[in-house]
Fold each of these.
Amino acid sequence: MSTWLITGASSGLGGALAERVLAAGHRVAATARTPSTLDALVAAYPDTAAALPLDVTDAAAIREAVAETERRLGGIDVLVNNAGYGYTAAVEEGEDDAVSRLFATNFFGPVTLMRAVLPGMRARGRGLIVNISSIGARVQIPGGGYYSAAKAALEGLSGALRKEVEPFGLRVMVVEPSSFRTDFRGRSADRTEQQIEAYDRILGRSGTSALGPQKGSPRRAAAAILTATELDTPPKLLILGSDALEGFRADARASATEVDTLEELSRSTDDE
């Protein structure tokens, strides 16, 4: 039995993962801005589930949530940075305050949480950090640049952190989901109010959207994440969804082709 701290657990992927982990016999501190949304989860697992209030942009609240988890459920074995939301805007349309809020939730919040759990994990010589990213970190669409940038930043930091903490017996796993049937495009989405007409067609505001159907099942994604965490060596990257897998491979092929085409130019900068 292990202890998990899962952010953004009131619905969607976070909610499905909390329920799956509890059903597997583990302990879960599930967090949400409004913890009463987790009442049903705690009622179903009163001995192993705890609902905690948490705004991931509040550093003091993060420290309190980590301390309360350790007090009630024991040392944190798995941290899942899941809380986040999207923001749709052409780069030219980006609003400073909105972009700052996006990065505060999708990047700086997870960073603060990681720093809060790492001392305990290092002391115990075990621990896994799971950062929920997006296939958008590598396959960008018009209007999703700021969200992609926040997730790419999270992945870049995760890669460095992995190499820093593996000597202590800790692991870091990035998850790149495709489009899942969650509130991501609804309640969890933010859109610019500074719309420039020239981008309407490109961003799909004229009726043609760049977004495809939401194929993914949060329940199945939760099962896949739990399976990956239980491997002897959890993967550095877990891609979820056939469209994400296809996008990843297409991007990798295109990038490799371009790099090969320009190989001579790339090597030309070396001193002779």
Amino acid sequence: MGTAVITGASSGLGEVFAERLAKRGYDLKLVARRKDRLDLLAEKLENQYGIKVTNLVSDLSLDTELEKVAEDLRNDKSITLLINNAGTSTLNSVTKTSVVKQKEMVNVNITALMLLSNAVLPQFLEKNEGTLINIASVLGFYSLPVSAIYSGTKGFVIQYTKGLQEEVKGTDIHIQLVNPATTATEIWEVSGVPLSVLEQSTIMKTEDCVDAVLAGLDQGELLTYPSVNDQNLIDTYEDARIKLMQGSQTGQPAERYIKS
């Protein structure tokens, strides 16, 4: 099985991923800021499943701490799976969101995900095996008045991951892009929009979301929408996206822009 790395592992989806993968027999490398929570989780999983857990206490929004984690991953040849799950959100208009908060979203949601992916991909290519799971969001293709920055960061994750999938075509490396909708994690409290104000029927349990992601992985999915039941919606969107790209390749202005 090798070692699975999970970022944002001290709560929410990351904590559940850790439990599910420990049960599957993976050794774990858990990354998060809160040492106390990581230590409790590591002790629990080691005792329950007999696997090895290594904790990397790190704030991925800080360049120096992110680089330490990236260096650790570059040097660990036992890694077979990386889940880029860590994320942060402030849901408010851009003009009411501090530059510090905006940069934090970019640093965690984009830079950390990119650099940690970069850290493991060379060894995956060298061995011609490995799995990368990047957690994006349905807000990566849909923006709200309060989600310009967050949606922008998740839009990057979507396009970056799709590009990586093209790069590894023909290899035995599997890269899965995940677009969850509303999920019961602490990110909502951090964002300033508590779960209590949302339509409760739209909120997915963290366990259900993780189980859906891993079921999609087991089925070989490249693109997983945990809460979308109608596969035709996904296929139609992907087909329209490709056709729009193809329709742009004319070299001429569209007729509506040409004066008669």
Amino acid sequence: MMGEFDAIRPYADAEVPAVLERLLGDSAFLSILTHFRFPRLANSFGWLLRPLIAYRLRRELRGIHSVAQLQDRVEPYVDRTIERATDGVTYSGVERLQKGSAYLLLANHRDIVMDPAFVNYAVYHAGIPTPRIAIGDNLLQKPFVSDLMRLNKSFIVHRSLSGRREKLAAFQLLSAYINHSIRHDCQSIWIAQAEGRAKDGNDRTDSAILKMFHMSRKDEPFAEVIRSLKLTPVSISYEYDPCDQAKARELYIRASSGSYEKSQGEDDLSIAQGITGYKGRVHINFAEHISQDFADTKQLAAEMDRQILAGYRLFPVHYLAYAMWQERDPQLQVPTAAELFAPAELAKAEAEWQKRLHACPPEQQPYLVMQYANPVRNQYRIKAGLAL
């Protein structure tokens, strides 16, 4: 096996049975499942329910010896979770992904777990192998989370390193792994366009990430390396963000006090809220992969932004938020929600939007509005041929 990538790569098929066995013996993992499955009984009867859940899981997972078998077994549960928390998932451009080719899928980033889950959903249902997923080590504090993610084709991005030399070495390894995955293993990669979620709804590509793709092949021209990776812009659009209130609160605290300290377990809460919270409709768009030459990362980042923002699906709520946004762009001709959407669709959106505004403290409301208004401004600036 490719030993140099062992510290970050997903688990291989041969490792699956041993990892599943380890998970079935992990009390923290079984505890979370018990709470999820039996929220009312978990505290009083957890000692009784945990072994039962382990027994059922063992039966359910019997005979699984590969990642593909595991994904097939888990897919109905993923579909059910998605169907319960959305009003439907649509996708466009998935036909651009050819079987037998591998792509570097670079997407906007709004939700920790669901962004790659929705991309997987689109790709899996199109009958194409799911991509390997980049995930920050800051989210893998518990061993069972790391096991679960690496079973599902995730590889680790070391973000919590502080020394410059360690960071450089980690980026170099990551670059080599991404190139190896696409060119040698013919396995696609999903990675977010920037570290951390775009909490203000303003999606932008970090050119440092584009630079990282080239790091392990420095002796080759930048444009050639990018072309060989089939870099593909992906836009993920949520009608409603289940974490929008928490994001508004964080943005408000940052703006008023200059900094924001995450509380213990905040990431876990965001993950749970993101998975189970109501999202309305969700759309995933796959653009054409980049084929033209870009001399540097700045130019390429601008093109990725153009493609990702143009492919974003705007819902009625985005126009409702834009209409009440203090920072509307006077140069832009933006139609009202009433001009674009049917009365019934608009009425439903207005009721949901009012509910969200009422749940948000008045001083935090501008940050809630901004999250939904920014995608409108960005898309109409692109349509008007203006700089972002």
Amino acid sequence: MKQYTISRVVTALLCAATAALITGCGTDGSGSDANSTVPTAKTKHPFDTMTPEQINGQVREAVKELTSMRLTGKASSDGRQVGVDLAIDVRGSCNGTVSNALGPIHIIKRGSRVYVKAREDYWRATFSRGMTAEQTETMVDHFRGRWIKPPRLMSETLGALCNDFETLLELLSPGSSGNATRGADATVGGQPTAVLTERTTTDTTTVYIAKEGKPYLLRATLVGGNDPMDLTFSDHNKPVDTTPPPADQILDPTTLR
């Protein structure tokens, strides 16, 4: 089971997206807590006769069929923590939130069209760079409680967050170093899972693989090291809702002076 670098990829994507609004990612971001795991009774299952490497092979085959999924949880990279609750699909559409120290940013993307919404603290921090206090508050008044239709360059930057579905699928296809061990089964979101763990001198990676239906990866955690994470994966192949916000709630910043 290869070392999971998904935490670094996720945080890099989120930082790149939020940098379009404010420089840098915060260190105290919050996201949805990953589902807790509870031991389940041992039952006979095809996984019970497989090695960890063979179970990983089942995951790799299942991932090839994925067209969409939802990521929920927290990830860190280089001391920066972000939260994510984002549904994303193979066409680059998405709907959900990413979070840093200034709170969540809600993003809806369909094709090249992007809409974002953030709390006033986020906008205040954004506009305070290069504006007077009075100008900043004027802009915050415009943006408060509204969806924003960003200019082209900002839309492209934010939209990049949703354009890496295939990269995520590759990272969700675990390889094997031959050092993985199987632990006690658990549940994630009420679904029974097989649990595989790999330890190094610095960290422990644990993955939870569905035992019912397709053997999708449902949760991955990385404890220790420089890039801890706890991400849950759900809504596999569920269509992403890309319905735009009501027109009267959308602001086009290019119309502002």
